[in-house]
Design brief:
The structure holds 2 protein chains of 2 kinds. Chain A is mainly alpha-helical. Chain A is built from 17 helices and no strands. Chain A is globular. Classes of the chains: A mainly alpha, B mainly alpha. Chains A and B meet through helix 5, helix 6, helix 13, helix 15 and helix 16 of A and helix 3, helix 4, helix 11 and helix 13 of B.
Chain lengths: 385, 321
């Protein structure tokens, strides 16, 4: 019996978790001697009240949509892909190889090819953990953690020994050619005659690619046969197997899609922002995907909202670090609290709510309708469908 | 390569293996009781910070060690609350703990010391100093044996010897005591333990607490013995290498010692030599960095002896399901 109505499940539980995380974060800010309300105002002012703030926020949001969707797809198949960080790193390598070695006359041609390159490399990086989980039962969480470290070593090797231009000390590739420059929001606004909008902000056309990815994943999960099979496998592996759904196939496909989405993130941070491959280009976005997917309840629309929230927090955190004594790491703490409350301590919020709703539906059912004479109260409650 | 170089590399392997071993044994207790712990890294990190911070303020490394253990126990308590009491996802809880540690240590370090997320350098009694074993001076003249005794076996901090002594102790506790039997049983079949009238929740909390203490010692070793103070992100993935060593050792204490020494040796080699030139081919340093993780994946894949985790690992226990 479901004790809670659907809206409580979808809205109330995450909102209460978020409030708990917010209250604790405010206490942390208080403890280090700053004012939480001033900090919140500073974050809002530096993010939402300036167009360049929006430009930064939506840049971060784009990263988090890709990694959040990556974690969500794996969640639907009941797989926990912690490897988004490594997959996004290797995806950056794929995007860079495409941008460096293929000549493109125009960004509109470069973008789809780079997207495919990033997704392919990301998917390949997820393929080994996927195969090992599907065929040999090696826990995908552990193997993807290991692959994050292997990816960091690989990227370090590629940048220091292969992609670094001669004579450069910097472990980074040479700059991408002009034809791969993605239009930023500033370029787009300038084309419409607003030169001052989104000035110097890194948000670019990849944001729209991320929105399309949201819609695509929604279609995939809820409107295709494959999506149905992924969800069925996630709900009950044995029931899915009984219905003829191959567990091996679903694990591998879900992980490949997941890795591909994480790898596709590189069109934003590598191709759109840095325009060359640098060490630590991902900046933890792969891990934030976990928080985004948990908060968004693995639904693409929820992921979009959660990615916007984390984009706001990231840009706001940068503002705080600039104007106050609060270091950027405050955002890492908030991120940890969100993961803790929406993920691990989910039952702490859920259990009391379920009790509350159970009590209300019993008490409410009796008082809302007058009980006909001779009928007992509890038979009424029990007979509802 | 002469004996002196070999001894230096081996000596540095032992130093680097010690935090891995402590964290690995911590994970061993937790995972044998059925609680997966990918938060070893975070617990080590808070312990490293609080041990260094308190040692810097009080000037006593022992008070620092106690503070480190206490901080690690707090995070272990959070993990226990989430994964035992509220039956949440143990992996997600571990991820949260790692981020909580990464953020809080820098935040508090900046608030207390204003040195960009580090503690002041530790001097004098605020650090663990080397212990010279008896006769190390007298024997140093003896060829081969003398240098090995003086360089490799003697001259480490007390925590190194403690970590090595913990290996037989862990073996004895897990395989020769009633508590150990119950602890292992609760990781394989908690319902059976419950039926026997022993508290599953109590045993699992005990295991998580032991894990917290050992991670605390590991973190304190990093900041007050291996190095002189805390720097941001100083655990640098050691918690995950310890996790890798735990799988490599297939959740057994003696094998954990061997795995940690191997991984410590790899770290020592990577620290000392950048690229290893064999003439015909060169092994890049990045490959040495990645080797522990690659080896773990190979072991997990089951091509070289299968690693089977405790059966009830990762599953919250619900009475009378």
């Amino acid at each position: 019996m479901d004790a809670m109505p659907k809206w409580a499940e979808i809205v109330l539980v995450p909102v209460i978790s978020l409030i708990l995380a917010g209250v604790l974060s405010a206490l942390v800010i208080l403890a280090i001697g700053e004012s939480p309300s001033a900090a919140a105002w500073l974050m809002i002012e530096g993010t939402l009240l300036r167009s360049s703030g929006w430009g930064y926020m939506l840049y971060y949001t784009t990263n988090f949509i890709f990694t959040g969707l990556a974690v969500s797809v794996a969640f639907h198949a009941r797989l926990f892909n912690i490897g988004g960080e490594g997959q996004a790193m290797v995806g950056g390598l794929g995007v860079s190889l495409v941008c460096l070695y293929l000549p493109f006359p125009h960004w509109a041609m470069a973008l789809p090819v780079a997207l495919a390159g990033g997704a392919l490399f990301g998917a390949l990086w997820a393929a080994v953990p996927a195969y090992l989980q599907a065929a040999r039962g090696s826990h995908v969480v552990i193997t993807t953690i290991m692959f994050n470290f292997i990816a960091a070593a690989l990227l370090n090797y590629m940048l220091v020994n292969v992609l670094r231009p001669d004579g450069s000390m910097d472990p980074s590739s040479s700059a991408f050619p002009e034809g791969t420059h993605l239009p930023t929001f500033n370029d787009m606004a300038a084309a419409l005659g607003f030169e001052r909008m989104f000035r110097a902000a890194p948000a670019n056309v990849s944001f729209f690619a991320a929105l399309i990815a949201c819609a695509g994943i929604w279609l995939l999960i809820w409107r295709t046969r494959l999506g149905y099979e992924i969800r069925a496998h996630g709900h009950s592996e044995s029931a899915a197997a009984y219905a003829g759904i191959s567990s091996f196939r679903i694990i591998v496909i879900a992980m490949l899609i997941s890795g591909g989405l994480a790898g596709a993130m590189a069109i934003n941070n590598v191709m759109g922002e840095a325009e060359r491959l640098v060490l630590n280009a991902v900046e933890g976005a792969g891990f934030i995907g976990i928080a985004v997917a948990l908060m968004g309840r693995s639904h693409p629309f929820g992921v979009l909202l959660a990615a916007l929230l984390f984009g706001f927090l990231y840009q706001g955190g940068a503002e705080l670090a600039l104007w106050t004594k609060i270091p950027r790491e405050l955002i890492v703490v908030i991120q940890a609290l969100v993961i803790l409350f929406t993920g691990a301590l989910d039952n702490m919020v859920r259990m009391p709510l379920e009790k509350l709703f159970a009590a209300r539906s019993r008490g409410g059912g009796a008082s809302a309708r007058p009980v006909p004479a001779g009928r007992e109260v509890h038979s009424d409650a029990g007979g509802e469908g | 390569m002469d004996l002196a170089t070999v001894l230096q590399v081996l000596d540095s392997s032992v130093r680097l293996a010690t935090p891995l071993l402590l964290a690995c044994l911590a994970g061993l207790f937790s995972e044998r009781a059925g609680i997966f712990d990918i938060g070893l890294e975070g617990k080590m990190l808070v312990a490293a910070f609080f041990s260094a911070a308190v040692a810097a303020v009080t000037g006593s490394v022992w008070i620092g060690l106690a503070a480190g253990i206490a901080a690690s126990l707090v995070l272990a308590g959070v993990h226990g609350l989430a994964s035992i009491t509220f039956r949440g996802n143990q992996l997600i809880s571990g991820v949260a703990i790692n981020f909580l540690a990464a953020g809080m240590t820098v935040l508090i370090a900046q608030d207390w010391f204003q040195q960009g997320g580090r503690t002041p350098s530790l001097i004098g009694g605020a650090r663990f100093t080397a212990v010279d074993l008896p006769f190390s001076g007298a024997l140093s003249g003896v060829p081969v044996v003398g240098p090995i005794y003086a360089e490799l076996i003697s001259g480490h901090t007390i925590l190194v010897y403690l970590a090595i002594l913990l290996v037989p102790l862990t073996w004895w506790v897990l395989f020769r005591t009633r508590f150990g039997l119950r602890l292992r049983a609760v990781g394989e079949n908690p319902a059976a333990v419950d039926t026997a009238g022993v508290s599953v929740i109590g045993l699992r909390f005990a295991a998580v607490a032991i894990c917290g203490v050992l991670c605390g010692v590991a973190g304190a070793y990093l900041a007050t013995a291996l190095q002189a103070g805390f720097v941001k992100e100083m655990t640098a993935g050691r918690g995950f290498i310890a996790l890798a060593a735990l799988i490599f050792a297939k959740w057994r204490p003696w094998q954990a010692l061997a795995a940690c020494l191997l991984f410590g040796f790899l770290q020592a080699i990577a620290l000392r030599y950048q690229n290893i030139d064999f003439g015909a081919f060169i092994i890049p340093v990045q490959f040495m960095d990645a080797l522990p993780y690659i080896l773990t994946v190979v072991i997990l894949a089951g091509f070289v002896g299968k690693a089977i985790p405790p059966r009830a690992g990762g599953e919250p226990y619900v009475k009378e399901r």
